[in-house]
Amino acid sequence: MSNSDARPGKPRGQLRCSECGYIPSKWVGRCPECQAWGSVAEVGISRTTGICPGPVSNPAQRIVDVDADAAASVPTGISELDRVLGGGLVPGGVVLLAGEPGVGKSTLLLDVAAKAAAQQLGPVLVVSGEESAAQVRRRAGRIGALHENLYLAAETDIGAVLSHVESVKPRLLVVDSVQTITSSRTDVAAGGVTHVRTVAAELAAMAKERNISTVLVGHVTKDGAIAGPRVLEHLVDVVLHFEGERHTCLRLLRAVKNRFGPADEIGCFQLTDTGIDEVADPSGLFLTQRNDPVPGSCVTVTLEGRRPLLTEVQALVAPSPLSSPRRTVSGLDGARLALVLAVLEQRAGLNMATRDVFAATVGGARVTEPAVDLAMALAVASAARKQALPTHVVAIGEVGLSGDVRAVRGVQQRLAQAARHGFTHALVPRDCQVSVKGIQTIEIYDMWQGILPLLKPLAAVVDA
After folding, report:
1. Which of 260, 286, 310, 418 is at 20 to 30 A from 229, Cα to Cα?
2. What is the C-alpha to C-alpha distance for residues 407 and 240, in angstroms, rounded to an integer?
3. Are strands 150-154 and 124-128 parallel, antiparallel or unpaired?
4. b vs e for 266-301, b when ≥16 Cβ sit within 10 Å of the residue's Cβ?
5. What is the bridge-based pairing of β-strands 355-361 and 425-429?
6. Whether the Cβ atoms of residue 131 and residue 140 lie closer than 8 Å to each other
């Protein structure tokens, strides 16, 4: 290092992570905040003095003088989407919708755009960077999303997108997707970290300035995270994830971030040949319709956000020819199943060490919360003992390592949902102190007295 580089008076550039914006004290090869490699670089000269006051866009106001109605939600016409958004789209708000390829993001937003155009609140502009206008038109015709106030544009340049906004003056803008839009301000390829951040910042600034509701479609990585820099999620007001398995028709719209409403709501949709339909009560999709009970089946009530959903857990237990018995799950957490099996063997005296165990949910539901532990334990015990549980009984509770059944949140809400679907009895943890009309609760203290002794007399208790 030369003497000129070591002079204390020489200004130094500021180090910043291009992924998350973290500012380290010295250069490092891996960002300590987001763990990204090679993202820390010098971004400019750090100056702590000499900053002069500049012009302001709007004068400061007293908070009581600010018009709150300017940020009122406008319903989209799709009740499940409005539930997740907190009432609808907010003028000037920016929504980021992410999901796996082929899950139905473009189809859902095309339906939203058509319904928004039909409300006669103003024109709606859909910008597609992945498909031509003719391809989008064919999909719109298939799902019935045609309206004279709906405009289409196939563009991949941010300048062209802004020109379309200037000419159409839409009330709602849909950009599909933000990773495909390029910008002349950056020399990097489309989809890069710097590039996506620049394009998203331009669109967000335009939405705030013109008071346009904007929806951006985002790609996801193989791990399910939104592709691009983490700062992309900070630039927008709402982050939604559209989830669903390819072999099932159910789609869940989940809010991850929401500045205008609750961030724990979900919306349920069903993929059909004519588009995506709303599912106001999806509990029936996760239950098997049968008249006679069968061993290895138990119904529970899960909470997806704040919505209770009835879910059937099925289990199959068979002698294993292998030295290490198989443990296979579908829609359930494998770690929770291993915990339940260990508790059943050690605390309830059920031999599981030499048996294969298969556990799954019905209808492609994915359940990971601990409240399903009791239903999973009952399903496994029922399959192992070949004793069926009554069909109108639900089980709710978390199983601990000591064999006790612990309380979970929202028991009152869960039982109310079970009662609406005709269930008359519920197995719940002790001291829940809940009362729901039409449903009788049976408290379960632990596995010693709760599981095996309960299987045979439970039918008699329920029938009585």
Report:
1. 260
2. 30
3. parallel
4. bbbbbbeeebbbebeebbebbbeeeeeeebbbbbbb
5. unpaired
6. no
Residue 5 has pLDDT above 70, yes or no: no
Neighbours of 199 (CB within 10 A): 27
What is the reported pLDDT for 464?
Answer: 45
Q: Please give the full DSSP string across 93-132, using - where no structure is assigned.
A: -EEEEEE-TTSSHHHHHHHHHHHHHHTTSS-EEEEESSS-
Do the beta carbons of residue 144 and residue 133 sit within 8 Å?
Answer: no
User: CB 213: neighbour CB atoms within 10 A?
Assistant: 25
Give tens-digit pLDDT for 243-270. 887 777 888 899 999 999 888 888 989 8
pLDDT tens-digit profile of 287-328? 887 777 889 999 999 998 788 999 999 999 999 999 899 999
Closest by alpha carbon to 39, among 236, 200, 194? 194
Q: Which residues contact 199 (CB under 8 A, 6 or more apart)?
A: 158, 178, 181, 182, 183
- CA-CA distances (angstroms) from residue 239 to 198, 235, 315? 18, 10, 36
187: phi then psi, degrees, rounded to nearest 5 = -95, -5
Q: What's the whole-model pTM score?
A: 0.77
Tokens coding 65: 């003088």
**Dist CA 228 CA 359 (whole Å):** 36
- Band the pLDDT of 7: cuts 50, 70, 90: very low
Q: What does the block give as tokens for 331?
A: 């829609």
Tokens of 144: 């019935």
Virtual torsion, Cα 259, 87, 84, 65, nearest 10 deg: 10
Q: Whole-angstrom Cα distance, residue 337 to residue 356?
A: 12
pLDDT at 228 > cutoff 80: no
CA max distance for the chain: 93
Instruction: Judge whether 178 and 152 are in contact, CB under 8 Å.
Output: no
Residue with tokens 């951040």: 197
Which neighbouring-strand residues pair with 15? Answer: 42
